[in-house]
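Minutes, project check-in
Item: structure for the 191-residue chain
Input as provided by the requester:
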Amino acid sequence: MTTQIVFETHSLSTDNEAGIATGWRQGKLSEKGKRLARRLGERRRGERIDEVYTSDLRRAVETAELAFGGGGVPIRRDARLRECDYGALNGAPAGEVERERARRIDEPFPGGESYRQTVERMHSFLRDLAAENGQGRVLVIGHSATRWALEHLLKGVPLEELVAAPFDWQEGWVYQLTATPESTALRSDET
């Protein structure tokens, strides 16, 4: 059984524009971000999308609603799709968080979580998605750490490599999630 996952990051937020690492703060889309979210919906219109899953943080929910609201596709919020919790650094300058990333793969941010814990959340989400969905095509709206978890879990890219690299935005990433009824193991089929 295979589920195709189309991953998109939340649209441009006011914090992104100000160089702030929002983390688990709600954040909100900027005016440009709202336009880009609507454009996301236009880009994906006409494609088969069975469901949209979004992080429950405001900037991701707002992206999903502007892109897909009223289009007949169910939008489901899931806290497991959140950004890494930077703890005391939620809302700090992005450069400050970037300098800490390599140290925080296994060691949590003070008062927050590690990137490995973010991956564990995503693994739980993917197991449930495979069990519930079986086959289909879903769109997931999340954050940089959400994509890193997908790359790590479904493509085997080392987490250390992902966290060390700059985040290069693009118009979506596609993953294949394969699970067998006998196993909760996940693997990716390259497309």
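Outcome recorded: The CA atoms of residues 51 and 73 lie 6 Å apart.
No further action items on this chain.
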